[in-house]
Amino acid sequence: MRYKVILCISMILILAASLIPGLRADEFKEEDLKKWQDAFMVVVIEGERLFHSALGTNSVSCDMCHPNASNTHPETYPKFQKQIGSVATLRDMINWCIENPLEGEPMELGDPKMIALEAYITWERRGVPLDPGKH
Amino acid sequence: MSRGKPITRRSFLKATAAFTAASMLPLKLVDVCWGKEGEKFTFGVISDSHLTHIKGTKFVNNFDKGLQQAVAETGLMWPQPDFIVFGGDLAQLGKKEELDHGLEMLSKIEVPIKFVIGEHDFYLDMGRYWEEKVSKLYYSFDHKGVHFVVLNSILTYEDWIKRWRTPEERMLQMARLDNPQGSPFMVGLEQINWLKTDLSKASHDTPIIVLSHSPLYKVFKPWNFWTDDAEVVQGLLRPFKKVTVLHGHVHQILYNQIENISFQAWMSTAWPWPYPVSYNQKLNMVPKMTVFMNRADPFHERDATGWSQVTLEAGRVSQHFDLWENTSRTIAYDEKAGHFVDSQYQDPSKRIPPQMHY
Q: How close B230 gets to chain A, by Cα (Å)?
């Protein structure tokens, strides 16, 4: 009996929850879009900060060769990177730069700092059509 | 080796080494340039070395190597150039350590050096150490019938200079090329008045060469490839028949012609900047006549960096870029075209895929 009461209450709660508009997966409003864009831009701004910081050991920063992340071509990745002889991702190349000109340690590919760098680099390239594989 | 001096083992070895090295350099590098006054002569250019102090006696090795290589190679030019121009940005953050380190490397050059100041040398102490140890900030001189003017083109507005809490903060803000809080370069009224007087002494037939750090025309404001009062300076140069402005700052091959004035940039020994066309969020005014240098290969540390030699003949400039780890380029004034022309690639059908920047 007690079990049936709990089940019944649970069913009512689930039904009630599905009627609350904010919890529906397929509907969102302008303010939601703004909220999500803002959350993305927080990461872009962090990426911009990292891009202009010394991420290695020698005080060199990414922007010294890539002002506004230019000449990074995120729209062309993944691509065959002729210098390493295989198909590489943008994150592989970010790590290459950290290890070589910046003389630092590579990041985990899922490191929040790596995601922030990728967010900034692609944000500065917004509007450019994808062109994977282009050298 | 001058006449009358005994040949010592040291001087013999030095001359032999120079001769051997010169014979290995491309022919253009050993262009014979002696002659009477007013005739052909050559000077070397080293620019934008950006020596970066880490701590103690440690500097960024990559940038040290660039300047060392340029000094070594200009030292092997035979005959030696009449002088070397250093085009500014010897230091990265204007520190005494960086300037001293650079001056020590440059001390191996045996011909006179004409210095141009860059913003990275200036904004820590507003050029005080530079004036004390290196050179005047602006000046002129005459050489073999050509009038040279060196300008300090990296000044900016007083209210921007006073905005920052410390000299270090001001320097860091100016050192960031893509800084949205940056401030445009300018020559300023004091120098413009000085330039007016200086040029009034020269006849309009005298070839004029202006050496500046920033381009004295407008290319791309977001990266300060820009001088705010460029048109005022251009106006003062307008009456002269042969005028060339040579500049640093942009770390790339770049040339232009605005009425009677031919413009050309110098290479950096440290790293290349991308062309503004590769930043698609803002409009640029990159001169259409420029044939871009090859896109840099970051896996070759010295690619897209180098030094150049400038040959002056009848008041017109030919600049040869010795590009380490890449094909050399020569860009010379073409009387028929009335502007600078690349010796190999100017015709669009001759261009090669690495010159495509996007």
A: 23
Q: Is B62 close to A127, i.e. CB distance below 8 A?
A: no
Domain containing residue A64: 39-126
Across-strand partners of A88?
A79
ipTM of this model? 0.88
Beta-bridge mates of residue B149: B140, B210
CB contact under 8 A, B274 and A59: no
Number of domains forming the structure of chain A = 1
Q: Are B227 and B217 contacting, i.e. CB atoms less than 8 angstroms apart? A: yes
The answer to whether B106 and B114 have CB atoms below 8 angstroms apart is: no
Neighbours of A28 (CB within 10 A): 12
**Residue numbers in B near A71 (CB within 8 A):** 274, 278, 295-296, 357
Rounded to the nearest 10 degrees, what angle do helices A112-123 and A90-99 cross at?
Answer: 110
Q: What is the CATH number of the domain that holds B269?
A: 3.60.21.10
Are the beta carbons of A68 and B178 separated by less than 8 Å? yes
What are the pLDDT tens digits along chain B (358 aa)?
334 445 555 555 455 555 444 444 444 443 434 333 457 999 999 999 999 999 999 999 999 999 999 999 999 999 999 999 999 999 999 999 999 999 999 999 999 999 999 999 999 999 999 999 999 999 999 999 999 999 999 999 999 999 999 999 999 999 999 999 999 999 999 999 999 999 999 999 999 999 999 999 999 999 999 999 999 999 999 999 999 999 999 999 999 999 999 999 999 999 999 999 999 999 999 999 999 999 999 999 999 999 999 999 999 999 999 899 899 999 999 999 999 999 999 999 999 999 999 9
Contact B280 A128 (CB under 8 A): yes
CATH number at residue A76: 1.10.760.10
Residues on chain B bordering chain A, Cβ-to-Cβ distance under 8 angstroms: 52, 54, 60-62, 176-178, 222-223, 271-274, 276, 278-281, 295-299, 301, 357-358
Residues 6+ positions from B159 with CB-CB distance below 8 Å: none
User: Across the interface, do A52 and B176 touch by the CB < 8 Å criterion?
Assistant: yes
A107 in Cβ contact with A95 (< 8 Å): yes
- Asked whether residue A8 is domain-assigned, the answer is no
Q: What is the chain B residue with the closest CA to A61?
A: B176
Set of chain A residues whose Cβ sits within 8 Å of the Cβ of B62:
60, 101
Please indicate, yes or no, if residue B304 is contained in any of the structural domains: yes
